[in-house]
Amino acid sequence: MIAPGATLGLLGGGQLGRMFTVAARTLGYRVTVLDPDPMSPAAEFATGHLNTAYTHPVSLAELAQTCAAVTTEFENAPAEALLALAERTVVRPSGNAVAVAQDRSREKGFIAAHGLPVGPWADIRAESDFDAALAKVRLPAILKTARFGYDGKGQAAIASRADLGRVFAEWKRVPCVLEERLALELEVSVILARAADGSVEVFPVAENRHTRGILDLTIAPARIPAALAAEAKALATRLANALDYVGVLAVEMFVAGGKLLVNEIAPRPHNSGHYTIDACRTSQFEQQVRVLCGLPLGDPTLHTPAVMVNLLGDIWGAGEPRWEAVLRHPGAHLHLYGKREARPGRKMGHVTVCEPDAGRALEVALAIRRDLGVAESA
Ligand code: ADP
Ligand code: MG
């Protein structure tokens, strides 16, 4: 067990890293952030900031030497950097698990190979893959780059074979996956922590609403039958066991035709788990600290129903939003990530509304969205 007072290393310094850093500092750890952004949201709370590229050998050597353990907050943290660090210090999750999660093709292959449900998909590496892919995946479909996509980026709608050829060429033939566009009834996510001894604690299943490929709203607990929620938790646990995963893992799932399909995994806390900070006995970020340091896992029980609203840069159109719209609600918790520049689609903060009555939480969250001028989705 790594006791408080030790220094923890963090690869990546965005908002997820910021909330990890707050949790770690609260528990009495020091945190060194490695992030090329001089204005890194996590570095604001950290005790140290290595302000270089993620693969910089001098920074990696310093992390390895000064940190009792290292974790990551984004899936594009170079798996090689994690594997190199693992030779000299504790790294959780492992570079190998991160490598699976950061490549959609490997990810889908892994999910399918372990008998977990996944929608129709096919690898696209060259034009010569088109025939086989279109035999497996019905149109309309979605083409996704295998790597570096997030928040709906690196995705294109494909209505015809001609679309597929055009988009694949426009993307300079980078490796892609083609996925059938499913009629989604609902999207849910399961976040869990798995410790080095294989023990697992699972957060409540969350229901997620996306707008233009970006998470908009999370409702916890998800409004699904108890049996489906139990199945979602079991699927996520099987996946974590199969990966021999140590850390916090998020599993995004679709509900289509009343059935669960795994969409993607994230080797870290997840935007849809931000509600755990205000609504669970242990947050996903404290859980990340606990797993990393070998502390007993915390209790993920929800103590109050919650609804989380993402605050994207779009609502800064006319200057700083009027925060009274949030702060006047006694059950609302405002979280801002300290980002200086508000761009459309950029995650600037979130609000979690906690109310003993789940319906009331949703009502207040929707009122806050409206008062802040968040564009209405579906
Ligand atoms: P990322 O979150 O990395 O941008 P996702 O694969 O999760 O990529 O896609 C973002 C969102 O787009 C999903 O949450 C879902 O709303 C929608 N989406 C993605 N794939 C499909 C699909 N095969 N069918 C229907 N909707 C999809
Ligand atoms: Mg996603």
Quick take:
The protein has 378 residues and is an alpha+beta fold. The chain has helices spanning 15-26, 57-66, 79-86, 95-101, 104-113, 130-136, 161-170, 226-242, 275-279, 284-293, 324-327, 358-372; strands spanning 7-11, 30-34, 48-50, 69-72, 90-91, 121-124, 141-145, 155-158, 176-180, 186-194, 200-202, 206-211, 214-220, 247-256, 259-266, 306-312, 332-336, 347-354.
Description:
- The protein is an alpha+beta fold and 378 residues long.
- The protein has three domains: 7-91, Rossmann fold (3-Layer(aba) Sandwich); 120-180, Dna Ligase, domain 1 (2-Layer Sandwich); 186-372, D-amino Acid Aminotransferase, Chain A, domain 1 (2-Layer Sandwich), CATH 3.30.470.20.
- The protein has helices spanning 15-26, 57-66, 79-86, 95-101, 104-113, 130-136, 161-170, 226-242, 275-279, 284-293, 324-327, 358-372, and strands spanning 7-11, 30-34, 48-50, 69-72, 90-91, 121-124, 141-145, 155-158, 176-180, 186-194, 200-202, 206-211, 214-220, 247-256, 259-266, 306-312, 332-336, 347-354.
- The strands form three sheets. Strands 10, 11, 12, 13, 14, 15, 16, 17 and 18 form a nine-stranded antiparallel sheet that branches.
- A hairpin with a 5-residue loop joins β10 (186-194) and β11.
- α2 packs across α3 and α3 runs antiparallel to α4 (95-101).
- The termini are far apart.
- Bound molecules: adenosine-5'-diphosphate and magnesium ion.
- Magnesium ion binds at residues 252, 264.
